């Protein structure tokens, strides 16, 4: 089972609540939050850490008690629990945490206008063809962020970070089924993509290294 937890980070605008919740996390995550310049970024990063703590409770663990190790390309993992895989992301007012027993990546993006130039620069030809099939600007922006979150989730699932160009693999959209799949030459493994629409105005995607038979669930969490 792959669980994705999500939360609205705006409650952490309350300084008292922020400081109270910060104490629940590990020195590693506290340091990551401390080096951020903007309060909004700190709040979202804290929310992501709290979601990880919430997710780890199902395994009998607390985030503040685990140790991390950093992969070759910067992806964090639990040092003494390789059977637990997780991914964190945040955008706008929301943070998400995906957790399971397979390599996983996730991404959430608030849909914003004026981002098509990013797609023109970084997307593969096949992806651009699908993006511009629709003539409506609103539809193109929706498709752009759908592709972006799926591409980011794949990059995070394989743990390669920015070492892998976004043009080195393709998100193929099946027009008949509406499903997405990733074509790549990174390794010989299969990666399954899942999209979520629970949060209005946002695109959310999860990528898991395994077959399409995995069960998925997206669950809201209150942070206060």
**How do the helices and strands follow one another from N- to C-terminus?**
EHHHEEEEEHHHEEEEE
Number of helices: 6
Give the overall shape, derived from the CA principal axes: globular
Secondary structure category: alpha+beta
**Arithmetic mean of pLDDT:** 93
Please count the beta strands (DSSP E, at least 2 residues each): 11
Gap between N and C termini, in Å? Answer: 26 Å
Give the biggest beta sheet: 4 strands, mixed
Q: Could you tell me the radius of gyration in angstroms?
A: 17 Å
Level of helix content?
25-40%
Protein described:
The chain is an alpha+beta fold and 224 residues long. It is 31% helix and 27% strand. It has six helices and eleven strands. It has a four-stranded mixed beta sheet with strand order 4-5-1-11, covered by helices on one side. The chain has a three-stranded antiparallel beta sheet with strand order 6-10-9, covered by helices on one side. It has a two-stranded antiparallel ribbon with strand order 2-3. A hairpin with a 5-residue loop joins strand 9 and strand 10 (202-209). Helix 2 (27-34) packs antiparallel against helix 3 (39-56). The model has no long low-confidence stretch (mean pLDDT 93).
């Amino acid at each position: 089972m792959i669980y994705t937890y999500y939360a609205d980070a705006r409650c952490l605008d309350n300084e008292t609540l922020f400081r109270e919740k910060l104490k629940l996390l590990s020195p590693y995550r506290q340091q990551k939050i401390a080096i951020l310049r903007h309060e909004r970024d700190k709040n979202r990063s804290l929310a992501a850490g709290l979601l990880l703590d919430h997710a780890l409770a199902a395994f009998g663990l607390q985030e503040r008690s685990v140790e991390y190790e950093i992969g070759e390309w910067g992806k964090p993992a639990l040092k003494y629990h390789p059977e637990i895989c997780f991914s964190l992301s945040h955008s706008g007012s929301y943070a998400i945490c995906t957790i399971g027993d397979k390599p996983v990546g996730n991404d959430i993006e608030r849909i914003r206008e004026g981002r098509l130039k990013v797609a023109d620069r970084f997307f593969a030809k096949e992806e651009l063809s699908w993006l511009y099939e629709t003539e409506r600007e609103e539809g193109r922006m929706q498709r752009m962020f759908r592709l972006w979150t799926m591409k980011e989730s794949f990059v995070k699932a394989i743990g390669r970070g920015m070492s892998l160009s976004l043009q080195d693999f393709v998100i193929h959209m099946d027009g008949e089924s509406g499903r997405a799949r990733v074509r790549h030459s990174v390794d010989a493994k299969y990666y399954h993509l899942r999209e979520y629409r629970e949060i209005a105005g946002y695109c959310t995607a999860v990528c898991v290294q395994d077959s399409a038979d995995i069960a998925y669930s997206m669950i809201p969490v209150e942070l206060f």
